[in-house]
Each structure stands twice: as structure tokens, then as C-alpha cells.
Design brief:
heterodimer, A: 334 residues, alpha/beta, 10 helices, 24% strand, B: mainly alpha, 11 helices, P-loop_NTPase (chain A), ATP binding (chain A), nucleotide-binding (chain A), ATP-binding (chain A), AAA+_ATPase (chain A)
């Protein structure tokens, strides 16, 4: 296994909600609550979960685009979670992000060429004379002709814009890219193209991806490891094959059984979850999943389970799971 | 290499959003009419001294209050001065005042509004208090008050400077009027621009492309000048077009009331004021400047409406 690129420890993000005429502190949204993971160089780590579970917040906090409330993100020996804008600037070259909506992530008043040249010139990565060559190469990398350099974003299709957004992330020759739902807003046929493009670029430049998504089929296809998040906490983290073959956390099981099958005759043994995701304004005590968990015991209501490695490369945060083969899931009341 | 073939752009209409807006503006007949009228007026104002058949000051007491004729297309006034020449010079005054006032107000408004909207905090709160207070007092009243309270100190200061330097520029009371009246007009005109820019910046600073610029590590200054302000410019251009018209009307209003441009410098406002006294006998003295003022105001409105439609088309973000 290769070296750890980013070491994320106990990352937390809280958003104060202020109400009333004098802005007195009324409530706190616990968007991210003690998130820890080591991201290995060259891997694709995916984060999945329902809307509002803190997937995107994780991506923003890792890159310090949103300042984490506490916790650390160690990159190249530096805790970048504590850096301010100026301190963060040299690291931005290495750590990039591709956003969800390609229609709004490009400045409508800037040509594609200017948008791509800006990070290169700003970080002094190439002299002005070589910009044209760099642009041509960047556009070719994402499968676009050089002639796009003079175009404006509104003249491009969604897929083309997302290619430009990827080229822009690549412009600084980064090592790590957060793909924040980078294909969710695109047509299915275009999704496959962009996905393949991302995989090719990973191979070519040795990139590491944090892939934030909600489409489990896509995640299964491209990930080395998958993290399942629920209400700001990691429920299960495992190698992709292991997670899809043998999900251990009750939430993971419910999530996977919700994936539609392509075989209409396949036996449908769905684990249906009752109720809604609780509000992150007042998350449940103990295990955050206990309000909807079929296995919930008294212990789950009071004590939050830690993320423990229960099998080779598979960690679960659940009191009911003792090891990969030893769960009390089977003898639970249906 | 990469997946799939290289995509080349299909050749549809190329161009920036600005060029698209210009294309839409050109299709709007009223806006084009407004633009042509204003362009003509700007030319007339710019080349006034070479266009006017007579000097706007020279009196001819043998030819007083003449009705329009071939020699004097707009007639002459009670001192025998050519009204056409005075209207043309009035256009110079009006444009000079409108452009200066709007430029100063725009500069103050954009800088303060952008900083307030982008950084927020106490500066933002303070600025909004100031704009609220300024905008809640009638403009006319405010200008009169500023004028009345500043005129004497400035006059005394100019007098002192003159005695010190003997430079005749300090003797020119017209300069005092100009600086005072139009300085105070600029002082009351910037709050709407500041509010507009602030509102635009507030809505733009959280757009994804600004977040994307932050993720690239760009500095606040670059983000503000290259990402936020260019996208805030559309509504601002509409406001400037309307603001120029308003400033012209305001200048005429002040001159009409006798607190703006002082005679003998021609202004449409003081010409209307003079004409109003004798309009039953010599209607051309009132009609000439009033008609021109009306046409210019309408032209600015047409242009402003056209710009609004061109820059903010429905269904486009």
C-alpha cells in the first residue's frame, strides 16, 4: 500500500443558526461530527449517503473552503485545517475540487481560455509565453479542441462545461481532487464519458480522488474504498468489493437494498427504513441511526459506537456488529 | 491518452454575454432611437462652440424677443441673445453636470457598495445606515442645506487663497457654484448606486464560481474585480443610464430654482425659469429649452428600458 496523502482526524463542522433581532445563538447544525480517515495516495475514496449527511461539507472542510470547527487535516506535514486564506494559498495548487453544477461554476464573463490561464498565471506555474501551449494541452487532456479557448461558458453544453471545470482543476497540476457530485448534474450518457475521463486522468497523472456521490452503481464501479455517512458521521468504511458483497452496518444494508435491480425476477428482500433522517439541528443521542435502526438496543440510545475495524480493511460504527461474521443482525426482530 | 474523441465546438453564434446584449439592444427600436438622440446631443454639446451661429452671451438689444425665424431658428430672448445657441450651450452644461455627478457618485457607490457587500461586518452596517438616512431626506432639501451651510466657508477660503496667490481662478464665483451644487448632487446621488452594488455583490459572492475561485487560491482582490464586479455590471449599467437622465433633470431643477447654474451661463433650467415669466407673450422662450429637456429625458428612459431588457433577458440567469 502506498503512502498516506491526507490524514483527516476528528473533523467537525458546526453551523450556528442565529435567530431573533439581536442574533442570539439559537441552535447549531452539526453538519460534520468527528470525521476521521486516511486518504491513501492514488486511491479513489468515495463518500456516499443521503442528502444532508455531510458528504459535501466533508469535501469543503478537507480543502478548508469551509473552515472546520475543529479537527485536523494533515497534508505534507502541515495541518491545513488551521490555515487562513494566505497560509492556504500554496496548498491550493495541490488540492483541487470539481463542483456539482457545471452551469454555475464557471464565471459567465470569462472565456474558457482566461478561466484556465488564471490559476496557472496566478500561481506562477508557467510563463506567459507558454500559456498557449499549456491551454492546448489542458483542453486536449479533457478531450476538448483548442478552439474552445475563445468561447464563453454559456456557449457550451453541460458535459463540455464539466470538462472545462476538470481542466481548470488540473491546471495547477494537483495531486488530490475532490469530486463533489461532479457527475450528478449531467445526463446519464455524459456521466459515463466524464467518469471515464476522470479515471483516465487519474491514471495519467497519478491523482487521488475524494469522490462524493449518491449513485451507488457509479461508486461501486470506480472506488477503491467507500465510506458510508449518516448524519455527519461515518457509519461504515470498507474496500468497495467488501462493502457491496458484505455490508455490515444496518444503514449500509438498507442503502444497498434500495438500489434497483436490473433483474425483474430477482427476489426482492428490501430492508425498508422507517421515518425520516432526523434534523442535524438536534441529532439523536448515542448512535445517530438508532431512531431508524431495526437493531437498536438501549445501549445504542446512550452510547455512540466508535468506528472499529471488524475485518481486513472494513470498519463499522455499530454496537451490533462484533466481527465480519458475528452480527446480531440476523436474529433481530423483522 | 484520453477517453473518446476530441470535441470541437459547433459553430453557432460566438461571443460574450455583452455582445449578445448589444445584439438584443439593437433590435429594440425605442432604445436605438434613444441612443441616436443622445449621441446627436452629445455631438452637439461637444462641438457646440463651432456649431452655434451666435455667441451665447452677445446681446443684441435691437433684436429682443424675436419669434423663430431663419436667422434665429428658436428666436431670441429678452436681451436679444440667440436661443438656439443658448440651448446648445445649455446641453454642454447639462451633460457636463450629469457626467461629472454620475461619475463621482458611481465611483463612490461602487467602491463602498462592493466593500460592504463583499466583506460585510460593521462597515456594511454603518454604510447602510448612512444610505438609509441620505435617501430618506428629500434630495432638493438636502442639496439646499448642504449649499447653504458650505457656501460661506468655501467663499471665504477662496477669498483667502486669492489674497495669498493673486491667482484669478479663486475669484471665479462660477467655480464655487459648480463645485458646491454638483458636489452636493454627487454627495446625495451615490447611495442608490452603493445599495445596488452591495445587493449585487451579496448575491454573487456566494455563487459557485466565486467558491471555485477561492478553491483555486485567488486573492479577494482578484475575486472581487474579475469575478464579482463584472457580473454585477448589468443592473449597474441600467442604473447609470437612468441616473444620467435624473442628474440632468436635477440640474435643470436646481437652476430653475436659482440654486444651480447662475446666469449668464446658460442652463435649460434657468432658461425655463426665465421663459416661464413671459410665456404668454413669447412662448418660444419657454418651449425651446423645455422641449429639448423633455426629449432628452424620454431618450434616457427609452435607452434605460432597452438596456434593462437587453442585459436581463427573461429566462437567462
Amino acid at each position: 500500500m502506498s503512502a498516506t496523502l491526507l490524514s483527516i482526524r476528528d473533523l467537525r463542522k458546526e453551523f450556528p443558526v442565529r435567530l431573533g433581532a439581536f442574533g442570539e445563538r439559537a441552535a447549531t447544525v452539526h453538519a460534520l461530527d468527528g470525521f476521521s480517515v486516511d486518504i491513501v495516495e492514488g486511491e479513489t475514496l468515495s463518500l456516499v449517503g443521503e442528502s444532508g449527511c455531510g458528504k459535501s461539507t466533508t469535501g469543503y472542510c478537507v480543502l478548508n473552503i469551509q473552515r472546520p470547527t475543529s479537527g485536523s487535516v494533515i497534508y505534507a506535514g502541515t495541518d491545513i485545517a488551521k490555515l487562513d486564506d494566505d497560509g492556504m494559498r500554496p496548498f491550493r495548487r495541490d488540492l483541487q475540487i470539481v463542483f456539482q453544477d457545471p452551469y454555475s461554476t464557471l464565471n459567465p464573463r470569462m472565456t474558457i481560455g482566461d478561466a484556465l490561464a488564471e490559476p496557472i498565471l496566478f500561481h506562477g506555474l508557467a510563463p506567459k509565453a507558454e500559456i498557449r501551449d499549456r491551454l492546448r494541452q489542458l483542453l486536449a487532456d479533457v478531450g476538448l479542441s483548442e478552439r474552445f479557448a475563445n468561447r464563453y461558458p454559456h456557449e457550451l453544453s453541460g458535459g463540455q462545461r464539466q470538462r472545462v471545470a476538470i481542466a481548470r482543476a488540473l491546471a495547477c497540476r494537483p495531486r488530490f481532487i475532490v469530486c463533489d457530485e461532479a457527475i450528478s448534474a449531467l445526463d446519464v450518457s455524459v456521466q459515463a464519458q466524464i467518469l471515464n475521463l476522470l479515471l483516465d486522468l487519474q491514471e495519467k497523472y497519478g491523482l487521488t480522488y475524494l469522490f462524493i456521490a449518491h449513485d451507488l452503481a457509479v461508486v461501486r464501479h470506480i472506488s477503491d474504498r467507500v465510506g458510508v455517512m449518516y448524519l455527519g458521521r461515518m457509519a461504515e468504511l470498507a474496500r468497495a468489493e467488501a462493502l457491496f458483497a458484505r455490508p455490515l452496518h444496518p444503514y449500509t444494508r438498507a442503502l444497498l437494498s434500495a438500489v434497483p435491480s436490473t433483474d425483474p425476477r430477482a427476489a426482492r428482500n428490501r430492508q425498508r427504513l422507517q421515518g425520516e433522517v432526523p434534523s442535524p439541528l438536534s441529532p439523536p443521542s448515542g448512535c445517530r441511526f438508532h431512531t431508524r435502526c431495526p437493531l437498536a438496543r438501549d445501549r445504542c440510545r446512550s452510547e455512540a459506537p466508535a468506528l472499529r475495524e471488524v475485518a481486513e480493511g472494513q470498519s463499522v460504527a455499530c454496537h451490533a456488529v462484533a466481527s465480519a461474521t458475528e452480527t446480531n443482525w440476523e436474529n433481530s426482530p423483522a | 491518452m484520453t477517453a473518446g474523441p476530441i470535441i470541437t465546438p459547433g459553430d453557432d453564434r460566438p461571443g460574450s454575454l455583452w455582445r449578445d446584449a448589444w445584439r438584443r439592444l439593437r433590435r429594440n427600436r425605442l432604445a436605438v432611437a434613444g441612443l441616436v438622440i443622445l449621441a446627436l446631443l452629445v455631438l452637439v454639446a461637444a462641438f457646440g462652440p463651432w456649431l452655434t451661429p451666435y455667441d451665447f452671451l452677445s446681446q443684441n438689444l435691437d433684436a429682443r424677443n424675436l419669434p423663430p425665424s431663419m436667422a434665429h431658428p428658436f428666436g431670441t430672448d429678452d436681451l436679444g441673445r440667440d436661443v438656439l445657441s443658448r440651448v446648445i450651450y445649455g446641453a454642454r452644461t447639462a451633460f457636463l453636470v450629469a457626467v461629472l455627478v454620475t461619475a463621482v457618485a458611481l465611483l463612490i457607490g461602487v467602491v463602498l457598495g462592493a466593500i460592504a457587500g463583499f466583506y460585510g461586518g460593521a462597515f456594511d452596517k454603518g454604510l447602510m445606515w448612512v444610505t438609509d438616512m441620505t435617501m430618506s431626506v428629500p434630495q432638493l432639501l438636502l442639496v439646499v442645506v448642504i449649499n447653504a451651510s458650505l457656501k460661506q466657508p468655501i467663499t471665504l477660503w477662496m477669498e483667502a487663497r486669492y489674497l495669498e496667490t493673486l491667482n484669478p481662478i479663486y475669484r471665479n464665483s462660477a467655480i464655487i457654484d459648480f463645485v458646491l451644487v454638483f458636489g452636493s448632487m454627487a454627495l446625495i446621488s451615490w447611495p442608490p448606486y452603493a445599495r445596488l452594488v452591495r445587493a449585487q455583490v451579496l448575491s454573487i459572492r456566494n455563487r459557485p464560481y466565486v467558491t471555485a475561485a477561492r478553491a483555486l487560491g485567488l486573492t479577494n482582490r482578484i475575486i472581487l474585480t474579475r469575478y464579482v464586479l463584472p457580473n454585477a455590471a448589468g443592473p449597474l449599467i441600467v442604473a447609470v443610464s437612468a441616473g444620467l437622465g435624473t442628474a440632468m433633470v436635477l440640474e435643470s431643477a436646481f437652476s430653475f430654482l436659482g440654486i444651480g447654474v447662475n446666469p449668464p451661463t446658460p442652463s435649460w433650467g434657468n432658461m425655463i425659469s426665465d421663459g416661464l415669466r413671459v410665456w404668454t407673450n413669447y412662448p418660444h422662450l419657454l418651449l425651446a429649452p423645455a422641449a429639448v429637456l423633455a426629449v432628452v429625458t424620454v431618450a434616457f428612459n427609452f435607452l434605460g428600458d432597452g438596456l434593462n431588457d437587453a442585459l436581463n433577458p427573461k429566462g437567462q440567469k
